[in-house]
Design a protein that fits this description.
mainly alpha; Farnesyl Diphosphate Synthase; 2 strands
């Protein structure tokens, strides 16, 4: 199913969201306005606002509060991407030059800070204190997940349970905040908000595993270069699975390749083949499907509706995507 079909229950809200988001970014500083226009131009499929609106629709209906929730989430997400590009020294994002590539690191960091503060002030101006709790928790978890990944990258000693802890915090926490804040914006009770948070977390874990699979050429039409995670010394699930099946000496050899030869195309290609041959790809794909099913099951108790159906299809979309 296409993203256009998935958007159908909240199509009008998605269309109305973009001009509202642009307006929320306005500043009296001309440099900021130039960069904000560039930021808006680079927006992707708007998956996170879609999660917000569909969750709100599922829990009673989209309202003005839902637009603020989606704006807050999108500001936080954009800020983290800009800061990630600085940390990773990345010059490209979604086929465009990154902010730091065009305006250098100092301005990129300040832009990220500006977006985060704008989002927080938007919530404060409307007394959306529950929004602040949800987003602040997600921000803390994303930072913890990133730091845990950096810590483990020093020794490459990540076990499967640690991997899931990293992606739960680093990636899934943001999608969980989308679905929770959407429910909150519609006036849902704490139990329902928690159920939608659980749904988003499971969906986010499946989303990240899908992203990991791209690195090993698991499907045609991949959206990022093969081996990039290995070059960045990131221990993803297919590689972790393979390592769990190796002897001590074989494991040390693989870790040595990741540590010392991660920029040698032939060694990286050899390692990718080894992961494929080990069954690591199929294992990771199976785990992705398990979390996708957990996500879908977590909203089974809600009455059938177009929004519920679209949330199901959205989880399927993010796990079947080609980039």
């Amino acid at each position: 199913m296409t993203i256009e079909h998935i958007q159908e229950p909240v199509r009008e809200h998605m269309q109305a969201f973009e001009p509202r988001f642009k307006e929320a970014l306005l500043s009296k500083v001309s440099l900021l306005d130039i960069i904000m226009r560039y930021v808006v131009k680079r927006k992707g499929k708007q998956i996170r606002p879609l999660f917000v609106f569909l969750s709100a629709e599922l829990c009673g209906g989209v309202n003005d509060s839902s637009y603020r929730a989606a704006t807050l989430i999108e500001m936080l997400h954009t800020a983290t991407l800009i800061h990630d590009d600085v940390v990773d020294d990345s010059n490209e994002r979604r086929g465009f030059f990154s902010i730091n590539a065009l305006w250098k690191n100092k301005i990129a960091v300040l832009i990220g800070d500006y977006l985060l503060s704008k989002g927080l002030l938007l919530a404060l101006d409307h007394n959306d204190f529950e929004f602040l709790k949800i987003v602040s928790t997600a921000t803390r978890q994303m930072s913890e997940g990133e730091l845990l990944q950096i810590e483990k990258a020093r020794f490459l000693d990540i076990r499967e349970e640690v991997y899931f802890e990293i992606i739960r915090k680093k990636t899934a926490s943001l999608i969980a905040s989308c679905t929770a804040i959407g429910a909150e914006s519609a006036g849902a009770g704490k139990e329902i908000v928690q159920k939608l948070h659980e749904f988003g977390e499971y969906a986010g874990i499946a989303f990240q595993i899908r992203d990991d699979l791209f690195d090993y050429g698991a499907d045609q039409g991949i959206g990022k270069p093969r081996g990039i995670d290995i070059k960045e010394k990131k221990m993803t699930l297919p590689l972790i699975y393979m390592l769990s099946k190796l002897s001590y000496l074989e494991k040390r050899k693989v870790i040595h390749t990741v540590k010392r030869h991660n920029n040698e195309p032939e060694r990286v290609a050899e390692l990718i083949k080894q992961v494929n041959d080990s069954g690591g790809i199929e294992y990771a794909r199976q785990k992705m499907y398990e979390y996708r099913e957990k996500a879908i099951q977590s909203i089974d108790s809600f009455p059938e509706s177009p929004a519920k159906e679209s949330l199901r299809h959205l989880v399927e979309f993010i796990t079947e995507r080609k980039k």
